[in-house]
Amino acid sequence: MTQMTIPVAQMTMSMAQMAIQTVHNGHFCGTNDHFYGTNATTPYAAAVGDFNQDNHTDVVVTNCGSWNVVVFLRYGNGPLASGMFFATSACPVAALIGDFNQDNRFDIAVANKNSNNIGILLDPGNASFASQNIFSVDSTPFTIATGDFNQDGRFDLVTANSGSNSVSVLLGYGNGSFATQMSMAIGASPYSVVVSDFNHDNLLDLAVTTTSASSVNVFLGQGNGSFIMHSTTSTNIDPYVSAVADFNGDNLLDIVIPHYTTTAVSVFCDLGNATFGHLLSLSGASAPGIVAVGDFNQDNRTDIAVINYSSSTL
């Protein structure tokens, strides 16, 4: 029997809180709350990784209001240790984990929404992260994703920039630094970007949801770090932070999208050529903002977890 954990950042102004939901055989087994003081405000996003290489999952949370991230290490099967704080630029709203300098340690990348840059925090060892290195992107980066876009074996980065209606691609050098952004114009208010090979050519593509235009846009990767616009699919209103998985068992990657101002979550299936059609809508959410996918009950089918902003539930 396997357990999974899903970190949830609670957006409270006076005292930061992170909730850990444990999934055991398909059942969400309650919440362990972690309060970490008034020096961290407006927690926004979370990511997981083994930062200190002890084979236990650790957590990093971005704090938009206090301009920092907090890292929680887990030792053994016990609770998370006290948080360690590391400074960022203005309002980090997204985080991901990757080995950006190829030293076999997990580093942290954050999207700093109000300063229009990406912050890279390299881990020199034992989760003692160095001061961030910043790399400029367009206005208001809201989500960040990673992949090897130019097939050189190094992590590259992409952000969806809601303030400039664009996507920024930054190619990695493999030493923790990145090339100047390549900017691509896109529809109004892109809020989410996910990376996958949608047309099965062994090159990574992008799927970008645009909130004001209510669409998901697919860009096909060319293998050299550039992308070509391929398809646009209309969605329900206010699509937010999406995820990809094969929901109908056809070995094609589908997209699940929460609709922030509604009670709905939609699944769009890949029609076989990196274009998407509406498969089904799921109701009962409450201002759904972020989705996560996984096999939570071990039946070899992909399940969906939804974070509901207005009700503070999962």
From TrEMBL:
<protein>
    <recommendedName>
        <fullName>VCBS repeat-containing protein</fullName>
    </recommendedName>
</protein>
<dbReference type="InterPro" id="IPR013517">
    <property type="entry name" value="FG-GAP"/>
</dbReference>
<dbReference type="InterPro" id="IPR028994">
    <property type="entry name" value="Integrin_alpha_N"/>
</dbReference>
<keyword id="KW-0732">Signal</keyword>
<dbReference type="Pfam" id="PF13517">
    <property type="entry name" value="FG-GAP_3"/>
</dbReference>
